Amino acid sequence: MKKVFTLILLLVIGFAKGQLLTTSPSFIQETSSSIVITADATKGNQGLKDYTPTTDVYVHIGAITNKSTTSSDWKYLPYTSFTTATPAANCTFIGSNKWTFTINTSLRSFFGITDPTETIRKIAILFRSGNGSKKLANADGSDMYINVYDASLNVRIDVPPSQPLFTQVIEPITKIVGDPLSITANASQTSTLALYFNGNLLTTVNNATTASFNTSITAVGNQQIVARATVGATVKSDTLNFVVAAPNTVAALPSGLKDGINYDANDNTSATLVLYAPNKSNVFVIGDFNDWQQTAQYQMNITPDGLRYWIKLTGLTPSTEYGFQYVIDGNLKVADYTVEKVLDHLTTNTSLLLHIQT
Questions:
Q1: What's the confidence (pLDDT) of residue 168?
Q2: Thinking of the domain 18-155, which architecture would CATH place it in?
Q3: Mean pLDDT rounded to a whole number for the chain
């Protein structure tokens, strides 16, 4: 039996806390007009933080429609050049490292969409310097996306905030037992709003578009926030999941393992990951095998000397590639430094691939 391994690397990714993009109105529809998009350059990859001149910031913007084939299939770009300071794409500086861009017509008019069978699903956007040498993007450098909603009831958890990735995920949260947790959800229509935390009802607010509650973390492990909006027989929900790290499990590194990815010669459905990470509080692994979610079952063991973290992955499928990254101390993503092949993170948001082939 011969095994062939393909390993792919991405750069270290740090995270900034807070809301990278905000919009007015909060729930943008195709028919919305006077849409204001605000970007905070102290968030995400901070690519325009403290950038001057402040008048030299422009958007690169497009539509993701029901006819887009991938997240990178931007359609109807009104300003096609990324390196030209097109006056119509110029942004307004409002202070504190924030810029706004305003769309004064409906989205369909702005993008020039006339096909009645085509609908806008998301706005794809980057903020950039006039010559395109600098850009404000997600923390991993990927494109930013703003959801476009239909006219029906919608609900969204806005605190804790999410990252404007193509598939939006919660901003990294570093919490311990006893820490406070603030939750705010908004609905697109006046409704009955209910907030749940770990299956427990926190509050119900009638005839409202906003509900908030302050609670606290009571246990380690997987955490879940649910917001539910109800109008008559219509019920819509939004869910955020995060994890509170447990005390590390101290376990000696199995004999014969090295830093990086270790394959079992007798089991082609498993692999053990070993990361040299001294002086770190905890490490999780995320990837295709757990939907890129930081969960309690993927918290890594620590060796008795405190120098390495390790975990055995099981249930892998031969001849399948798996992307993964390490999450260190809740706020840093890093790839395995032993890998050999670079992956384009701008379109896939993955760090490295593990490929087991029999």
A1: 83
A2: Sandwich (2.60)
A3: 89
Interatomic CA distance for residues 261 and 285, integer angstroms: 12
Which neighbouring-strand residues pair with 162?
A: 170
pLDDT tens figures, 300-313: 999 999 999 999 99
Give 266 or 121, the one with higher predicted confidence: 121
For range 140-157, the mean pLDDT:
95
* Closest to 160 (Cα-Cα) out of 145, 174, 171: 171
Report strand pairing: 180-197 vs 200-216: antiparallel
Return the structure tokens found at 12. Answer: 């270290």
Domain ranges of the chain: 8-13+247-356, 18-155, 177-244
Q: What is the 3-state secondary structure (H, E, C) of the chain?
A: CCCECCEEECCCEECCCCCCEEEECCCCCCCCCCEEEEEECCCCCCCCCCCCCCCCEEEEEEEEECCCCCCCCCECCCCCCCCCCCHHHECEEEECCEEEEEECCCHHHHHCCCCCCCCEEEEEEEEEECCCCCEECCCCCCCEEEECCCCCCCEEEEECCEECCCCCEECCCCCCCCCEEEEEEEEEEEEEEEEEECCEEEEEEEEEEEEEEEEECCCCEEEEEEEEEEECCEEEEEEEEEEECCCCCECCCCCCCCCEEEEECCEEEEEEEEEECCCCCCEEEEEHHHCCCCCHHHECEECCCCCEEEEEECCCCCCEEEEEEEEECCCEEECCCCCCEECCHHHHCCCEEEEEEC
Q: What does the pLDDT read at residue 355?
A: 54
Residue indicated by tokens 């901070």:
46
CATH topology of domain 8-13+247-356: Immunoglobulin-like (2.60.40)
Whether the predicted pLDDT of 341 surpasses 60: no
For the domain spanning 177-244, the CATH number is 2.60.40.10
In sequence order, which residues have a C-beta less than 8 Å from that of residue 11 and are 6 or more positions away? Answer: 335, 345
User: Does the pLDDT of residue 5 top 50, yes or no?
Assistant: no
Q: Do domains 8-13+247-356 and 18-155 have the same CATH topology?
A: yes
